[in-house]
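Person: I keep going back and forth on a fold encoding question. Show me how you would write down a chain together with its backbone fold. Please set it down just below, with no commentary around it:
Helper:
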Amino acid sequence: MDSVPRIVSCLSEAAKATGGLPDLDGHELKQVIGLSLERCYEVLYPEAPKSMYETWKGHYRDQFVDLNPVPHYLFDGVADTLTALKERGLKLAVATGKSRVGLDRAFGEAGIEALFDASRTADETASKPDPLMIVELLEELGVKPESALMIGDTSHDMKLAINAGVDAIAVSWGVHTKEELSSYSPVKVIEDIRELLA
């Protein structure tokens, strides 16, 4: 789903509400999408005191859960493709930098939660690119790494796949460019989600 505009807006508004943090542009904010909030803060504000993190995180969550009107929406073909993959008997899971509250909200807005067999969020396990998120999902679903495929739109996703020892497919319509994603040697870079069905 396209959560980029909402996340960028929430990050920007959280920094303003916190005060004392640099005003970063949308491109800079976009680069941390996929990481846990703690890791986002460390990357975006390396000079900021750690003591401000909890305040900033609270403002971000307020924005994401209650205040920010920018909606999530599914990219074209996603619901149908996920449904078709599920009907083929594949096990589907989500590994995300979102919190559980954030993922549950996104699931609710998109109406696709029932398609997934499992999920892990950054507040439940180690953040990307640590492989623990994938390792836990594989164990829960009884899937071996060589039988798994990570699909992602960020360099953080590609690093996660490498660290977990699973193949990856990069999607070109999300956060990072086709060139950036290709540098991690995914099995394929796709231009449309429906390509997964082939």
Q: What stands out?
A: The CA atoms of residues 12 and 128 lie 22 Å apart. The two ends are 21 Å apart (CA to CA).
